[in-house]
Amino acid sequence: MATLIVKGPDGSEREVALVKRITSVGRDVENDVPVADPGLPATALHIHFDGRDYNAAAHERADMTVNGKRRTAWRLAPGDRIRVAATELFFDPAPRSVVTARPQSGQRLLALETLVRFSERLLGATDLARLLDELMDALLEVTQADKGFLILLEDGEMSVRAARNVARETIEGAVDRVSDSIIARVVQTRRPIVVADALHDREWSGSSSVVNLKLCSVMCAPLMQKGDVFGVIYLGNDNVVSLFDEKALEALTVFAAQASLLVQNAILLDGLRRENLTLKEAVSSKQYGDLIGAGASMREVYRRIEKVAATDISVLVSGETGTGKEVVAREIHRRSGRANGPFVAVNCGAIPESLLESELFGHVKGAFTGAVATRMGKFQAAHGGTLFLDEIGDMPLALQVKILRALQERAVTKVGDTRPEPVDLRVVAATNRVLEEEIKKGTFREDLYYRLNVVAIQLPPLRDRGEDTLVLGKYFLQKYGKEFGAKVRGFTPSALVAMRKYAWPGNIRELENRVKKAVVLADRALVSAEDLDLRPEILEPILPLAQAKEEFQKRYINEVLERNAGNRTKTAKDLGVDPRTIFRHLEKLEAERRGQPPPPDEGEAP
Ligand SMILES: Nc1ncnc2c1ncn2[C@@H]1O[C@H](COP(=O)(O)OP(=O)(O)OP(=O)(O)O)[C@@H](O)[C@H]1O
């Protein structure tokens, strides 16, 4: 073992045994040989032992001279004098003293120090692969090995989870290189092995890892949990024959014993993190912007929004009250090129007819009694953005003409004014009426209908959304639980059943309100059907027998269809009816959904 005599700028001298394969020298205390010389770079040079010779290499831009000549790299000979800034280093190939580069740290201590650092980082780290790489890098440092592998046994298969060399790089193709008899022995005996001189060892010189990795010296220790081997740490040295000795094996054994627990924890934590992520993804896949729901009908709605959002096409959203028509309109706006512009909502049904025109188009001062100042309307306010005309079916006929004109001419005129003002907006209209019926009745203009209904989005009532009712219920429970700091955690099983059974005439708005009220008033962790005011009599009102029979039949066919993933032929077979019965059932549902009269019954018995 060679010695380096270090002379600092203050004339102090010390001897350092070059025990490591790479010894760093510099101003920084992290170096193996720190020197208090302000002129030195943080790391000035490395001394590298290649198994035969010691070589000095200047670090980056360090100005190094050897025997008075500038050098960047130099194979050291006895008596060579290296100088960087005011620091001098003398090389002596003979061992001199017992002072090592880290005098206070024996290998065992170093191993433990490394483990402590590793365990501290364990909780904060999110990347298991990187963490294991760092663990192996630290171990290479401790044991002065050239190559290190952390191998786990998963379902009887070896999987190399970290393969590192002394340059802190990943060794490619590691699995093929290390799968061999040395590891098999360690796994079988559960005891560590050191093969000090592998090339001359009769038993191991032919081992594939020794040959493939051109190793001269090998150590391998098991990673154990509750008496079982779940992996191994394998270290190899390809340069210094017999570098590993019993002491190095002892350091590795200490390290492996402690590392077993930490690696197990790291794997467990990693698994939990992944699981958490998958759960989060599952939850977020039930959400599209602010819209919650993952059932087939809502997925079709999302698909439509996705298609039309980026265009300027008019959209007509229809559905019963509280089904989320305004949320859909906002989502279209949010995903459009107008997202930075305003979103202006007008409830056409809530404004008295006499005020509606001025509300929509604005008015000039003095236009009518009470018009004390000029005011712009909702059309002008929505300039550059989206105008949401809610309850468009309630719009009086006279105003329907004016709206149509405004949309065609892209201009509006204030009440009492004669000058049209250009407006640039996109219209999303909504209705809970069946506008086709209104057209037939003569209460809605067909030309306006076609202008608004370029693309139609039909929102299903909540009672037809299947599992989404529960998904929405849980979403509101979480939302309001958080908002009100309530201690509720979920629903009782009977509350879940009640939520599925109830017809929800007020749809999502009603569900939201019932859950919100229950969360505010609940004093237990689980919200019950009573907390939701879902009493048996409203769940199952008494119906005339014929209607009850029909309701039951409808629900039962739906359930069997769902169980058969929508397969109509199989459903008909399971129920022992003609397939036409199932087709007619679906036609009826569709007509109901559209608010149309049911198709004529052919009188066929199910
Ligand atoms: N898919 C959904 N996910 C989450 N919340 C929803 C969803 N649909 C509706 N809501 C909520 O339900 C309530 C009613 O929604 P919204 O006002 O959009 O319904 P609407 O169909 O426009 O009602 P109306 O016809 O009475 O105007 C709102 O609080 C809304 O946030």
UniProtKB/TrEMBL annotation:
Which SMART domains has this protein been placed in? Answer: AAA, GAF
- Known CDD domains for this protein? AAA (cd00009), FHA (cd00060)
Keyword Translocase in annotation? no
**Entry keyword annotation includes Cytoplasm:** no
Read off the SUPFAM superfamilies from this record: GAF domain-like (SSF55781), Homeodomain-like (SSF46689), P-loop containing nucleoside triphosphate hydrolases (SSF52540), SMAD/FHA domain (SSF49879)
Q: One matching Pfam family, short form?
A: HTH_8
Sigma-54 factor interaction domain sequence ranges: 291-520
> Which PROSITE patterns has this protein been placed in?
SIGMA54_INTERACT_1, SIGMA54_INTERACT_2, SIGMA54_INTERACT_3, SIGMA54_INTERACT_4
Q: Which UniProt keywords apply?
A: ATP-binding, DNA-binding, Nucleotide-binding, Transcription, Transcription regulation
- Domain of life from the UniProt record: Bacteria
The protein here is known as Fis family transcriptional regulator
